[in-house]
Amino acid sequence: MERRGESEQAWPLLIEALSSPRNAAELQGFERLRQRLGKRLGQAVPPGPRAPAIPTFELLLPRPDQGSVEFAVAEYFASDEAPVHYVENLLFNGLLALLCWPAIYAPLPGAFFHPFQAAPADLYRSDFYQRRRALFEACLASLESGDYRDRILETWQLKQGISSPFLYWPLLTRELVGQALDCLEPLQLRACFERMLEDLREYRSGLPDLIQFWPDEQRCRLIEVKGPGDRLQDHQRRWLAFCIEQGLEVAVCHVQWQEAP
C-alpha cells in the first residue's frame, strides 16, 4: 500500500499492527514505516526507541595468508588468561539444545516420522514452543534451581555425535562448554534461550562472531567482527542491543587490512 501511494489507507492498519508485532524484526519494520508514512501524512510521530551505544574497536591488522577476518581478530585479542573462540551462532544454539533436549525431541504427534530425523518436523512452526511449553519450562527452570550445569554436561556426554541442527560437535568441545558455563550467568542464558524460542527461525542467527572468556573473573565478552566494507545487519543490531539489556558485555570490531610494504 505504501508503494502504491495509499498512505491514508495504510495508516490505520499500521497502527493496529504496531499493537501486536510478531517479533522484534517486525516491530522494527513497523517503526520505520510509521516514520515514513507519518511524515507524508503530517502525523505527529514519536521518535523510535533509541538503540544502546555499542562499544566499538577499529583495528588495522596485517592480512592473514589463510583464514578469515574473524580468526585474525580472535588471534589479536586472545591471551593465555583470556581465550577467544569463533562461535558465531553455534555456542548459544548448542547450549539451548543441550539444556532443552527433552523438550526439543519430545515424541509429540506429527513431530517425527523416521528414526534418523535430525529435528522435529514442526521446528519452525509458530506453535513449536507452545506445544511443548511445559517441557521447556521444566528445562529452563534448572537455570534457577542450579542444576543446569550438570544437565548440560550430561547431555553433552550422552548425545555426543548425534545429528542436530542446533549442534556442531567439532566446535562444541567439553572445554568450550565448561568455559561458557563458568562465565555466563544462568539468568542471562535463560533470557537468551527464551528469546530464541520466541521465534527459532528469526533468533537462531545474528549472534556475535566471537566470545572471549576470563575464567578467573568468571566473565565474558561477545564480539561482532566486521571486515572491510562490511556493516552490521539489522538482526545483528537487535541481538547486540538485547545482550546489552541483559548485562552481557559486547563489542563490535571493524577491521581494515594493512597495506603490504
From TrEMBL:
Claim: Cytoplasm is one of the keywords in the record: no
Keywords: Hydrolase, Magnesium, Manganese, Metal-binding, Nuclease
Cross-referenced Gene3D superfamilies: 3.40.1350.10
Annotated Pfam families: VRR_NUC
Top-rank EC class of the record's enzyme: hydrolase
Domain spans labelled VRR-NUC: 143-257
EC number: 3.1.4.1
SMART domains: VRR_NUC (SM00990)
Catalytic reactions of this protein: Hydrolytically removes 5'-nucleotides successively from the 3'-hydroxy termini of 3'-hydroxy-terminated oligonucleotides
Co-factor requirement: Mg(2+); Mn(2+)
KW Oxidoreductase (keyword) present: no
Homology family: Belongs to the FAN1 family.
UniProt protein name: phosphodiesterase I
